[in-house]
Amino acid sequence: MRPTLPPLNALRAFEAAGRLGSFKEAAAELHVTPGAVSQHVRLLEAWLGASLFERHNRRVQLTPAAKAYLEEIGPLFEQLSQATARYGMPRTLSRTLSVNAPATFTLRWLVPRLAKFRAAHADVDVNVETSNEPLESLKDDYDVIIRGGPDTFYGYSMRPFLSEERLPVCSPALLQRVPLRSPGDLREHTLLHTSSLPRLWPDWLASAQIPELRPAAALTFDHFYLTLQAAIDGIGVAMGPTALVADDLAAGRLVAPFALVRLPSRSYCTYVAQEKSGDERVALFRAWLEREGMGS
């Protein structure tokens, strides 16, 4: 019988981390996150029943046994790479990556950044579908699902990549017509609501210590992106998620008159079925989302 091999993705992560002496540098080489490298190493340690690294501040050091192990398996990766180059088909990742994400997030955050992913990974085609259904209600099979979190779903791995808060936003032109010097001035304005998020304004007004405020008018939309567009068009004041209005604030299309009073909000997370967690395209896309999220 053929001898049992350890998990190959875990072995690959161990080889890179051991050779480079850093989970972070190994993650960059493998196009995954340091957390993924650490998880693979823990999996290999559990499989072997032995510790492989001594953890220090920003570096890791091989144990003596792990060093000897690496000296034996390291050349095997090089041989495998050379054999694949000689006999393998040209490398391609052409199969389409299917992504499901909320509509407003897709329109306002993901789509403006997708060109950067395509520029870095031209061999990965991405198909994005929008939906606000809970993950467990989705009928189709997706490679990557983006939803709020962190939540736990059986059979899925979860990784957060973008955090946000919520605060009032409006167009500069609106402030020129009707100034907002203090939260109490909102009584002179139209407050913009989204039907699926009815508590945003009441909760923010309570945080601003004016829970009884009555605005001049109110408008309610069935989609969040319509609410934000109405704010950009100067119709009223909306509760804006910081991650999804950051580009508008930077460009001056929106302003945040009361930036010090913010509501906490859930993070955006990727959810991937466990059997797809080792897919290279999935790993590339997740790592890219996490780098973009850190820069937002």
From TrEMBL:
Residues 6-63 form the HTH lysR-type domain. One of its GO terms (biological process) is DNA-templated transcription. Pfam families: HTH_1, LysR_substrate. GO terms for molecular function: DNA-binding transcription factor activity; sequence-specific DNA binding. Transmembrane segments: none annotated. Keywords: DNA-binding, Transcription, Transcription regulation. NCBIfam families: PRK11139.1. Belongs to the LysR transcriptional regulatory family. PANTHER family: HTH-TYPE TRANSCRIPTIONAL REGULATOR (PTHR30537), HTH-TYPE TRANSCRIPTIONAL REGULATOR TRPI (PTHR30537:SF74). This is Transcriptional regulator GcvA. It comes from Paraburkholderia acidiphila. The lineage of its organism: Bacteria, Pseudomonadati, Pseudomonadota, Betaproteobacteria, Burkholderiales. The gene is gcvA.
